[in-house]
Amino acid sequence: xxxxTRIFRKELLQVFRDRKLVFSTLVLPVLLMPVFAFGPxxxxxxxxxRSAKEVQEVAARGLPQEALxxxxxxxxxxxxxxxxxxxxxxxxxxxxxxxGGGAYRVYxxxxxxxxxGQVAVGKVEKALALLKEEAVAEALxxxxxxxxxxxxxxxxxxxxxxxxxxxxxxLGFLLPFFLVIFILSGGQVVAVDATAGEKEKGTLEALxxxxxxxxxxxxGKALATVAMALLSGSAGLLGLALGGLLSGRLEGAMExxxxxxxxxxxxxxxxxxxxLLALFMGAVMVALGLYARSFKEAxxxxxxxxxxxxxxxxxxxxxxxxxxxxxxxxxxxxxxxLLMDGLFRGQAEPLSxxxxxxxxxxxxxxxxxxxxxxxxxxxxxxRN
Length: 384
Hints:
Helices cover 67% and strands 6% of the residues. By secondary structure, the chain is mainly α. A hairpin with a 2-residue loop joins β3 and β4. The relative contact order is 0.12.
């Protein structure tokens, strides 16, 4: 075990001697996470809020007087235009509306997502809906029919989600996603430098000639990769927490993401889950890095690996459409994401926890055996 500890310390010392690397891996996530996670949401919420309060010009054609008044009441300024659709397509107006044949047609450029056009179209729709209700009410009143016939009953939608699930909100998806990203990016730094990097520097041959068993050598490098991956993941979560804290202090900030309330046991379970994932991915990255001829080639292997790992995380967005089965907790990476999501929402079950931990540990052991096997193959180790 002493040799494993020495290899572990050697790899970490090399990392921490590089101040730029430490800054980019451990400090930068703390600084950037608040910007990435909450900055765009805050920025666009303020833009949409300002657009909703501004008076916007809309292209109008053939509108009756009551429709023009309804638009003005919603903070719009109708401007007579011969071709409202063409004017909107050219970007001259955020929205357009024309009346003909007993129908109102509303134009807007909505394909680009939230923007001024969507806000203006929403105002037009609201104005016309109110106008329609007034017309119906007047017609019923003229015939002596009470307005209550329009609302024979009420429909109330109540969110029956458990309190922890409602509180977690978007963070239930974001936190597992970012945690996996930082585990991968932090571990990659050590894995590539400890394998392909040593190949390029010519120090790997000297290390292999030392009286150190190959399994100890692979375990020391894998543990150093795991340690850096966990530190990077912790830095990312710290940045996310700081971002949530700062955004909550901003005046008028919208309800962002949600909040996380983990018990001591759940926090420990989250740490163990992250550790097992880091162990699994650390062994995989060490094996891939050793197989590469150069530092650049190793990095080219890591990029597809990250995409492959992140793909199952997209499943979390659609988990509401599926009934989770036991075998879902045996799928690599997806099982970790599901368990983290369950922990943040307070819905993790002992069976899912046991299946995820057990299967991830098995995958990590297989990946470690793969790394040891790669170390044993001279044609791979010295292929550069």
